[in-house]
């Protein structure tokens, strides 16, 4: 008969190293189970208000959207926290239906720009950069809104009119001043998790330590994330991973649609999107990349 598991106080805890992206000593954080708690621990370590933390990148202090912390952290990943910097207000003339923005969020109430399409309306406005948090549109506060809500509001703005964006950029280190990134291509750059596995953060329920995603899961998540961008103007690897998890054992698109409605009903995914997600998961399963 084996020994009972040790009480929670004696179990080994995962410890991660962290720095502020613009420069700071190294801190140690532990004992978090979701993104909100992670930001709280970072704020505590550096004696900051939690609301100052915008988002985190893994293994780089740069505003690199391919290294954005989403739903998973490799057990040996180094966390860089980007905090609020300069605020700015920008007037934008919507000359085309598509602005060229891809929106993501930090899982804790802040939506920000993940990618700017080359040659788009926004690409020509050099005050707007990847990593900028969207605080308000035409005076309407967006704090607490999810990425898909912000993307929908931007899409619904009338063409041929001017609107106002209130933005906050991440505080920059000296070597990042004047840097303006349009965001990398999806899936470019090294994969997360250089250690023995990953810590999977969930918006509901406890965090779990898991093996690195299989080749099928990795490719399916990438394809579903691409579909989220093309249909909804957002990127969210955690959401894509949840959809792959829900869909990988479903026998047909109707079963997938039912599972998505039950778990992710707020998104109101269109039928053609669900069908394409089903196809993407199926393609990845049989190795059609």
From TrEMBL:
Residue ranges, annotated region (Disordered): 179-200
Alphabetized Gene3D superfamilies for the sequence: 2.30.42.10
One of the record's GO molecular function terms: signaling receptor binding
GO terms, biological process: cellular response to interleukin-7; chemical synaptic transmission; endothelial cell migration; glutamate secretion; negative regulation of proteasomal ubiquitin-dependent protein catabolic process; positive regulation of cytokinesis; positive regulation of melanin biosynthetic process; positive regulation of transforming growth factor beta receptor signaling pathway
Domain PDZ: 89-169
GO cellular component, one term: cell cortex
A Pfam family matched in the record: GIPC1_GH1
Biased composition (Gly residues): 184-196
Family indicated by similarity: Belongs to the GIPC family.
Name this polypeptide is given: GIPC PDZ domain containing family member 1
Top-level taxonomy: Eukaryota, Metazoa, Chordata, Craniata, Vertebrata
Gene: GIPC1
């Amino acid at each position: 008969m084996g020994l009972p598991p040790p009480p929670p106080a004696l179990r080994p805890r995962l410890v991660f190293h962290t720095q502020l992206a613009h420069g700071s000593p190294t801190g140690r954080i532990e004992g978090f189970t979701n993104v909100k708690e992670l930001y709280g621990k970072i704020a505590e370590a550096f004696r900051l208000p939690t609301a100052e933390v915008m988002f985190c990148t893994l293994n780089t202090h740069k505003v690199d959207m391919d290294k954005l912390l989403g739903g998973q952290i490799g057990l040996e990943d180094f966390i860089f926290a980007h905090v609020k910097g300069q605020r700015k207000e920008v007037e934008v003339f919507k000359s085309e239906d598509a602005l060229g923005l891809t929106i993501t969020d930090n899982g804790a109430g802040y939506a920000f720009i993940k990618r700017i399409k080359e040659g788009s309306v926004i690409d020509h406005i050099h005050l707007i950069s990847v990593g900028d948090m969207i605080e308000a549109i035409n005076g309407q506060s967006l704090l607490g809104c999810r990425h898909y809500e912000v993307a929908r509001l931007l899409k619904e703005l009338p063409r041929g009119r001017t609107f106002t964006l209130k933005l906050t950029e991440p505080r920059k280190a000296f070597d990042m001043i004047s840097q303006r990134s349009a965001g990398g291509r999806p899936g470019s750059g090294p994969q997360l998790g250089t250690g023995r596995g990953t810590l999977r953060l969930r918006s509901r329920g406890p965090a779990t330590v898991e093996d690195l995603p299989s080749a099928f899961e990795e490719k399916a998540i990438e394809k579903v994330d691409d579909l989220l961008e093309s249909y909804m103007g957002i990127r969210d690897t955690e959401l894509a991973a949840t959809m792959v998890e829900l869909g990988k054992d479903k026998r047909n698109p109707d079963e997938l649609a039912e599972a998505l409605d039950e778990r992710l009903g707020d998104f109101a995914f269109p039928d053609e999107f669900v069908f394409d997600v089903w196809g993407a998961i199926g393609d990845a399963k049989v190795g059609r990349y």
